[in-house]
Write a sequence for this structure.
C-alpha cells in the first residue's frame, strides 16, 4: 500500500522535539483520588468560577512554597547538581487548533502562589483563545522550531542541562489534563521535574490526580505527602478564595431590549 508523505508542521515539530528531550528523564508516577467536597461547593457558588487548570496551578505553587524539593530540578552542566528555585514556575499545556491541526503549546505562569485565581485563569484563557502570535511563550517556541534541526538539537541540549535555562524553558512543573475532552488518567511526560494531571470530578466529589516526577530529585514518600497536602490546600486556601469571590457583589446584568 502506498501512503502519502506529509510535512511535519511547526507546532508538531515542537512535540517531536519535546518527546525526544523527555525520553531521558527517569519518571515515576503516583495517582490518588483527592476528596474535594469543600472546593467543589465553593466553586459552584462562584459567579465566575476559574478553570481547574488555574486551581491546580495555584494549589501546587502553594504546596511548593513550603516544600523546596518541589522547586528543584536535576541539571548536568557544568557538573551534576540540583538547582533550587526561590519560587515555582508553572507550564500549562494549552490545546489549540492552528491551520486546521490540533496542537499543544505550553503557557508560562510565574508567581502562581501570589496571583489571584482570577488572574491565573485569565492568562490561561487568553493563551487558549488569543491569536497565537500575541502569546510571547508561543512566539518563542515557534520561532525556535523554525531553526534547522542541528541548531534545534544544540539549543535543546543547552536548555536541558543548565539549571537556569532549563527553568526558563520548561518551568519547575507542568499542569496538563484531558478533563475537558471526556477525562481519563493522563500520564504525561516532559523534561521535568514534575508533571501534574487531573481527571474530571467524580459523582462522589473526588478527583483523580496524577503526579509524575524525576526520581533523581525525590522519592515516592514525599510525593504521597504532597498529595495529602494538595488535598488540604484545595479544600482550605483555594476554597476560601473561591468563597470570597462568590461573596463579592456582582454587577447587575444588562437585559437586551
Amino acid at each position: 500500500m502506498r501512503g502519502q508523505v506529509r510535512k511535519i508542521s511547526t507546532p508538531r515539530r515542537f512535540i517531536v522535539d519535546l518527546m525526544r528531550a523527555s525520553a531521558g528523564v527517569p519518571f515515576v508516577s503516583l495517582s490518588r483520588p483527592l476528596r474535594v467536597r469543600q472546593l467543589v461547593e465553593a466553586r459552584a457558588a462562584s459567579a465566575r468560577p476559574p478553570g481547574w487548570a488555574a486551581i491546580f496551578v495555584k494549589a501546587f505553587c502553594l504546596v511548593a512554597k513550603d516544600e523546596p524539593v518541589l522547586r528543584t530540578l536535576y541539571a548536568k552542566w557544568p557538573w551534576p547538581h540540583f538547582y533550587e528555585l526561590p519560587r515555582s514556575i508553572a507550564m500549562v499545556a494549552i490545546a489549540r487548533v492552528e491551520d486546521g491541526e490540533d496542537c499543544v503549546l505550553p503557557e508560562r505562569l510565574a508567581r502562581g502562589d501570589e496571583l489571584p485565581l482570577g488572574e491565573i485563569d485569565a492568562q490561561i484563557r487568553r493563551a487558549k483563545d488569543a491569536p497565537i502570535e500575541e502569546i510571547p511563550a508561543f512566539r518563542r517556541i515557534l520561532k525556535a522550531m523554525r531553526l534547522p534541526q542541528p541548531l534545534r538539537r544544540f539549543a535543546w541540549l543547552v536548555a536541558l542541562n543548565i539549571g537556569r535555562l532549563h527553568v526558563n524553558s520548561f518551568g519547575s512543573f507542568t499542569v496538563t489534563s484531558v478533563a475537558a475532552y471526556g477525562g481519563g488518567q493522563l500520564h504525561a511526560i516532559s523534561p521535568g521535574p514534575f508533571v501534574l494531571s487531573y481527571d474530571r470530578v467524580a459523582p462522589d466529589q473526588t478527583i483523580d490526580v496524577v503526579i509524575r516526577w524525576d526520581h533523581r530529585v525525590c522519592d515516592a514518600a514525599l510525593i504521597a505527602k504532597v498529595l495529602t497536602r494538595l488535598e488540604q490546600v484545595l479544600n482550605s486556601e483555594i476554597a476560601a478564595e473561591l468563597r470570597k469571590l462568590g461573596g463579592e457583589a456582582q454587577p447587575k446584568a444588562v437585559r437586551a431590549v
